[in-house]
Amino acid sequence: MALTTEILPLLARRERLLEQIHGGAQSKMELAETLAVSRSTIDRSVRTLTTAGVLEQRQTGYGLTLTGRLLYEQYRSFSECVESLAAAQQLLSSLPAGTELPPEAVVGSSVTYPESTAPYRPMERYIEMIRRADEVDLLATAIAPRFIDVYRSQVLTDGLEVRAGLGPSVAERIVTDYGETVTELIAAGGLTIRELTQQPPFSFSVIRTGETAYLSLLVYGTEGSNGYLVNDRPAAATFATELFDSYWSEATTLPVGDPRISS
Questions:
Q1: Where in the chain is the domain with CATH 3.30.870.10?
Q2: Which residues, 6+ apart, have CB-to-CB distance to 25 below 8 Å?
Q3: What is the DSSP letter of 115?
């Protein structure tokens, strides 16, 4: 087996070939045809990978050794993580370096960024998700006024159920400026608001549509939304659900009769 410093570059260089063989043993001729490369290239690649203990010869061609299969699967997992983090770099750079956000929240995600010709695209993508949702669990350190009407429409028209954990300043603003809407939605049974006792590190939602749960992360900057990340991987949804529950369990419910809610 080659040294770690040698095996990683080898896996990277031969990734396409390993991907083909990961699906089952193949002959050199099959590999050359599938990958559209010369037979001599395949010969060199197979010889190098066999010497490294990644491939072995079988009756049906060349296949991955146990070590080779485990190495390739771990390499692909690492590569996907790196690719996802790189794609989300612009969004993640808006958060403090010490933010407790595990890689699982980002791996496999889809990220939408504002563009010069479409500066509100992240918000529009978020609204699309809300309109598809059956349930939303929200922790907010800030909330854009345009979302209030969307939530109201979805609660009253489509039966959306919302649990909103709001930071103190956000809760004060919502119940004061939108008291009539808040009262209406709470009375309709579609909204529960709690005032958070601790400020979460970022605003996020757990959006549930049917049996699928999504981590929904809308990040704001000084000039508006910096990006929107959504991830339906189970690990991401589990992280978001557990984080929401930890804040929600310690928050204070704001009832319909809260004196700050205007009539």
A1: 89-254
A2: 58, 60, 61, 62, 63
A3: B
CATH 1.10.10.10 domain locations along the chain: 4-79
Q: Residue 257 corresponds to which amino acid?
A: G
Task: Assess contact for 205 and 135: CB atoms under 8 A.
Answer: no
Max distance between CA atoms of the chain, in angstroms, equals 80
**Rounded distance between C-alpha atoms, residue 120 and residue 105, angstroms:** 23
CA distance 137 to 243: 11
pLDDT tens for each residue of the chain, 263 residues long: 555 668 989 999 999 999 999 999 999 999 999 999 999 999 999 999 999 999 999 999 999 999 999 999 999 999 999 999 999 999 999 898 999 899 999 999 999 999 989 988 999 999 999 999 999 999 998 888 889 999 999 999 999 999 999 988 888 888 888 989 999 999 999 999 999 988 888 889 999 999 999 999 998 876 677 899 999 999 999 999 999 999 999 998 875 555 555 44
Q: Tell me yes or no: is domain 89-254 CATH 3.40.50.300.
A: no
* pTM for this model (two decimals): 0.84
CATH node for 4-79 = 1.10.10.10
Rounded to 5 degrees, what are φ and ψ at 250?
-105, 0
Quickly list DSSP for 28-60.
HHHHHHHHT--HHHHHHHHHHHHHTTSEEEETT
Q: Return the SS3 of 139.
A: strand
